[in-house]
């Protein structure tokens, strides 16, 4: 608990996420002052003992994580701004991985892919599901290292019934796996109409898994390959329909003229997007493949 050590220094959030606002602040330590991000979750949580136990359990899990590609949780604060504990982490001045690569074109994005894969493999080894992996949730440290952040928050909101409809996830549907969007009885050969989409948006969201993380990892790799987010020309609803119908992103138009590594990464993307969750690669094997000699260079 860092409530007595942290101070929010700005009233307006620096950025917004799907379920949180991020404020700038300072954490006073014995060694000095650290600039921090204070992440405040938007939806009001149910005020009951079960919810409190789930949150405390998740905070304990997140606080023990220690990996070079996972943004470390510095603690939390309980103050007058909200009921949910605000999460404290060091402020990353380099921003997100996409923005960093745009500003630093000399950086090889393959190194970013390796770091993201290593971080996700570590989370899965620790039985943590990220549940909202996208380039916006990969920050870059002062040394240029990719760091996964915002892991577990979306899953916690679903488990505690704070988020109750798929429509509340519209900002993240571009990265969401087929099974998170399509009800089991849906036939992808059927007609998709407005009534179906409206019903789908009101559907109770499925709980994310390691397999849905792998799908999202493939979309993040695609982002770095194509330098744009998946389904760039689609609205959120159009992206939902496309994924349900099995219409996946096209390869970058110049992929055939690119280096072998880029072609291998595109092949990896397509395997991460297998409709059958059990047919997708596991992150342990992805990391071995990326680091192995068989990965075309």
Automatic annotation (TrEMBL):
GO terms for molecular function: ATP binding; protein serine/threonine kinase activity. It comes from Rickenella mellea. Pfam families: Pkinase. Coiled coil: none annotated. Keywords: ATP-binding, Kinase, Nucleotide-binding, Transferase. The keyword S-adenosyl-L-methionine does not apply. SMART domains: S_TKc. Residues 8-296 form the Protein kinase domain. This is Kinase-like protein.
């Amino acid at each position: 608990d860092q409530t007595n050590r942290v101070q929010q220094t700005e009233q307006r959030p620096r950025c917004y996420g799907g379920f949180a606002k991020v404020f700038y602040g300072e954490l006073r330590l014995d060694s000095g002052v650290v600039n921090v991000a204070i992440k405040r979750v938007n939806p009001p949580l149910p005020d009951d003992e079960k919810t409190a136990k789930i949150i405390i359990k998740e905070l304990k899990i997140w606080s023990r994580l220690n990996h070079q590609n996972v943004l470390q949780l510095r603690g939390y604060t309980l103050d007058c701004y909200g009921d949910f504990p605000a999460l404290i982490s060091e402020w990353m001045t380099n921003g997100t991985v996409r923005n960093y690569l745009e500003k630093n074109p000399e950086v090889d994005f393959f190194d970013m892919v390796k770091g993201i894969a290593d971080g996700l493999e570590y989370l899965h080894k620790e039985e943590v599901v990220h549940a909202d992996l996208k380039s916006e949730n990969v920050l870059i440290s002062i040394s240029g290292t990719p760091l996964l952040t915002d892991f577990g928050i979306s899953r916690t909101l679903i488990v505690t019934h704070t988020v109750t409809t798929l429509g509340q996830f519209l900002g993240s549907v571009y990265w969401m796996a087929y099974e998170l969007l399509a009800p089991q009885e849906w036939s992808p050969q059927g007609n998709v109409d407005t009534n179906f989409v409206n019903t789908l948006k009101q559907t109770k969201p499925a709980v994310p898994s390691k397999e849905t993380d792998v799908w999202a990892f493939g979309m993040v790799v695609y982002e770095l390959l194509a330098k744009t987010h998946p389904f760039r020309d689609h609205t959120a609803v159009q992206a939902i329909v496309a994924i349900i119908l099995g219409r996946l992103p096209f390869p970058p138009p110049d992929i055939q003229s690119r280096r072998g590594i880029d072609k291998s990464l595109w092949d990896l993307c397509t395997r991460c997007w297998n409709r059958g969750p059990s047919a997708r690669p596991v992150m342990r094997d992805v990391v071995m493949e990326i680091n192995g000699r068989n990965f075309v260079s």
